[in-house]
Design a protein that fits this description.
Number of strands: 0
Strand content: under 5%
Shape: flat
Helix content: 55-70%
CATH superfamily of the largest domain: MetI-like
Order of helices and strands: HHHHHHHHHHHHH
Number of domains: 2
Distance between the termini: 65 Å
Length: about 300
């Protein structure tokens, strides 16, 4: 008996072609709508930045004209050198770099050590203490502001840079949580193999765990640098001497009692946020990895 073969008729091919064409059109329309909404959202979000750039090249009389002059006429290029030389921006930049760098070091070091203790070591009361630490995330900073200020005043640290970075060496609840969750995902067989080879806990952290949690360390470093560089509230509380001002606090000096130097203020503001934008542009890969690979295990 000869084997029979079934050939698809033309109507089957036509139905398949219509199905594929319909799905292709639907996917194209869906992706087009998504890209349209993303583009529209990006344009709306960028309006304040565009206005800031435009204002940084304007004279004071052009700032609040209506309708808005997006392209200044004439361009006042002098706003940038005059704004940056009218205040001690060199000293303020050094203060901001010092605070940001020391805060990055403190948060990365303390989060790695404490996160390792919570994630890889077994000790009595570990889970209870971890929950207590997480409860600190629920407290707004206004609740602990006055006790911290009183402590730093007793230590004689008010009107110095110490209160702005020394607390970072004692850990931060959010950063410790990020590091702990990242370390929990690593297989414990790595620790067992290292102990068989004679490594102690510090060597396990240094040679085995630390190289594998670099994305989390990068995320903490980038996030800490951004927060400390842009921080206005804490320098306002602890600093009184203009020589100790940070860049964020120094921008306030362009706001007088009766007038605001808008052109200078916008020019200086753009110069201040530029390092953060450049840093995030080159390090966004580590920032995203630190968020994506931080699991919820444990």
């Amino acid at each position: 008996m000869a084997a029979s073969t079934t050939q698809p008729d033309s109507s089957s091919w036509q139905r398949l072609f219509r199905y594929l064409r319909r799905n292709s059109i639907q996917n194209t329309l869906k992706m087009g709508f998504i890209y349209f909404m993303l583009t529209l959202t990006a344009l709306v979000i960028s309006i304040p930045l565009v206005w800031m750039v435009s204002t940084s090249f304007k004279e004071s009389s052009q700032v609040f004209t209506w309708p808005i002059e997006w392209l200044p006429n004439p361009f006042r290029w002098q706003n940038y050198p005059e704004a940056l030389t009218s205040r001690p921006f060199g000293t303020w930049t050094l203060n901001s770099i010092t605070i940001a760098a020391m805060s990055v070091l403190g948060h990365c070091l303390s989060a790695t050590l404490v996160g390792f203790a919570f994630a890889r070591l077994r000790w009595r009361g570990r889970d209870v203490l971890f929950l207590v630490m997480l409860s600190a995330l629920m407290l707004p900073q206004e609740v602990t502001l006055i006790p911290q200020f009183l402590i730093f005043r007793q230590l004689g640290w008010v009107n110095s840079l110490l209160p702005l970075f020394v607390p970072t060496f004692f850990g931060g609840a959010f950063n410790i949580f990020i590091m702990r969750q990242f370390m929990v995902m690593l297989p414990r067989e790595l620790d067992d193999a290292a102990r068989i080879d004679g490594c102690n806990y510090f060597q396990i952290l240094t040679y085995i765990i630390a190289p594998q949690v670099f994305p989390a360390v990068g995320f903490i470093a980038i996030n800490t640098f951004r927060n400390r560089w842009n921080d206005f509230f804490h320098p306002l509380i602890y600093l009184n001497d203009p020589k100790l001002f940070t860049l964020a606090l120094g921008l306030r000096t362009f706001r007088g009692e009766y007038a605001i130097e808008w052109g200078y203020l916008m020019a200086a503001s753009l110069a201040v946020i530029l390092p953060v934008l450049v840093m995030f542009f080159f390090t966004q890969r580590y920032f995203i990895q630190g968020m994506v690979f931080t699991g919820v295990k444990g």
